[in-house]
Write a structure and sequence with these properties.
By secondary structure, the protein is an alpha/beta fold. It has two domains: 82 residues, Rossmann fold (3-Layer(aba) Sandwich), CATH 3.40.50.10890; 45 residues, no CATH class. Helices cover 43% and strands 12% of the residues. The chain is built from five helices and five strands; from the N terminus they run αβαβαββαβα. A five-stranded parallel β-sheet has the order 3-2-4-1-5, sandwiched between helices. β2, α3 and β3 form a beta-alpha-beta unit. The longest helix has 16 residues. The chain starts with a helix and ends with a helix.
Length: 161
């Protein structure tokens, strides 16, 4: 993810501010490329920012483990510079979960959830997460332009339709 230093700092500050204010954060992302970029960026942020340490962080996707495992294998195969000591894509602070119920892991309270799928199709993990997060007034960060469908969902949920 090509992010300037200032944009990265603003992004991380938004997440830190929301979590420390007892609000959860949802980040819908395009699978898998954008999701993997976000996982690396956010795992590093959770490692280097002590204020984030108490909060659980999740990557919610039906194929979370498979996508990370396949990417790790490709990186090791393609790059002679990556050794077993580098542990590419071994996240210290982000738990990979494949079902919505996996978000209940960890302490109660605010959490960060990166969820695959920007379309928020019927019965999708992203739509379920969006509806739960929107009802309770939490932060939803979009890393890509939203679709008309998402704009409609946001407007309807605010007006109670």
């Amino acid at each position: 993810m090509a992010v300037s230093g200032r944009s990265k700092a603003n992004f991380e500050d938004s997440i830190t501010s929301a979590l420390t204010a007892q609000q959860s954060v949802m980040i819908p992302a395009l699978p898998p490329a954008r999701s993997l970029d976000l996982l690396i960026l956010l795992d590093n942020a959770f490692t280097t920012t002590p204020a984030l340490h108490p909060f659980p962080a999740f990557y919610l996707a039906k194929t979370a483990q498979k996508a990370v495992r396949a990417t790790r294998t490709m990186l090791e195969w393609l790059s002679q510079d990556i050794t077993l000591q580098d542990h590419p894509l071994d996240f210290k602070h982000i738990k990979l979960v494949t079902e919505y119920t996996g978000l209940a892991q960890g302490p109660l309270g605010p959490r960060l959830v990166i969820v695959d799928d920007l379309e928020m199709s019927l019965q999708s993990l992203s739509k379920q997460t969006f509806l739960d997060f929107n009802i309770t007034g939490n932060l939803i960060l979009f890393t890509s332009r939203s679709t008309p469908k998402i704009h409609f969902l946001c407007c309807c949920s605010r007006t109670g339709r």
